[in-house]
Structures are given as structure tokens and as C-alpha cells.
Amino acid sequence: MIKKISILKNNFIGLYARVWEDIAFLPLGVEQETVREFEESMGVRVERVLINQSYLIGSLMVMNSNGIIVARNGTDERLPEDLNGRNVLFLKDKINAVGNDIIANDRGAIIHRGFSASSKKKIEDTLGVEVIKGTIGKIKTVGSAAVISKRGMLVTPEADEDEMKFLSEFFGVPVKSGTANFGNIYVGSSVLANSRAVFVGKETTPIEIGRIDDVLS
Fold first, then answer.
1. Is the pLDDT of residue 76 over 80?
2. For a Cys staple, 153 with which of 17, 35, 87, 148, CB 3.0–4.6 Å?
């Protein structure tokens, strides 16, 4: 199932939300209709939060089944207590947009090369997976360059065939390249997915939707 949505009237939905199989985090103030879309289509519990007093939840959070990592910028952040047993890490690092700078599933994670060695170890411990530093399509902000779910991985068209083969082996899912929101190569900012549904920004074209459907649905 693929649906076009916006969040807070913005089509770059990946900047404003983070979703996994069981839970989705949306910004405070999001429309109730949007909450229902996540609950009914993706089958998740929705939590509305602020991170560093920002609505950009997708840019500032990353998660898998084992853990949640939240950017910490000196403020007193809070998350709901019931996170289905996940580890929680409030990470303070010079690389602070963790949602843009980490791509992870339950098999592995790729992180921005600029993370410190101590942050890399904390990320590994929290998510419970192998962590490597790298790029996707030569893009350092790996979380913005890709979207991953249990069904597959969509990556920027800047990634070549050899890289997509490596990503498929590392993450254990099929990988294809594509764009969203009328040619935007930073698909992590425009697409949200779990195994039940895929949401895309409202400017995404039918051709783009077909490509996304092939790998994420």
C-alpha cells in the first residue's frame, strides 16, 4: 500500500516523522487525520514528541527493533516509557542530526564518517547491530540518501550497481534506486515505510511511485 501524505503541510515527510513496525514518532501539533493515517495504514502506535524543541523528528531520531537514538543538544529530552523494550540513547556528538546521518535496520547500520569512535560504539550498543562508517552514492548524510524497511531499501540514484549489491548483502533486503517528490534524490526526506505501508510526499510522481512500490511494498 502506497499513500501520498503531507505532515504539517510539508511534503518532505521523512524530515518530520520516524517509523518502524510497531511505533511512529510524529511532531507535536500534527493533524489528527495524519495520526489516523499512520495508525490505520502502518498499524503502529503513534507518539507525538518534540526533539530539541523542533518538529523535525525524522532528522533527529533513528530506530530499529532494538533501540532508539535521539540527538541531544543540551535540552532535557523525554520519550514515552513504553518503547517495547528498546534501548534508548540520547547522543551528543558534533554530528547531531542522527536521522539524517544514520540508516539502520535489525541487521546493520551505516553512519556518517564524522561520528566519533565513542559515538560509533554507543550506536552499536544501542541498536544491537554491526555499525560501519560510509556513504551512499557519495552522500555523507546516509539517512537522507535511503529508506529501509523489512521489505526492501530505496536509495538515491547516485548509488551504483556495486554499491547497491553491497547494501543488499549488508542489510539483508532487496535494494533499488529511485527518487521522490518530483525528482528529489534525498529519498530519506520524502518517503516513510514499514512492512505494511509506504507513505510518500504529495509531489511524488506516478513513475516514482512505481519504482518505490517495486522495492518497498
1. no
2. 148
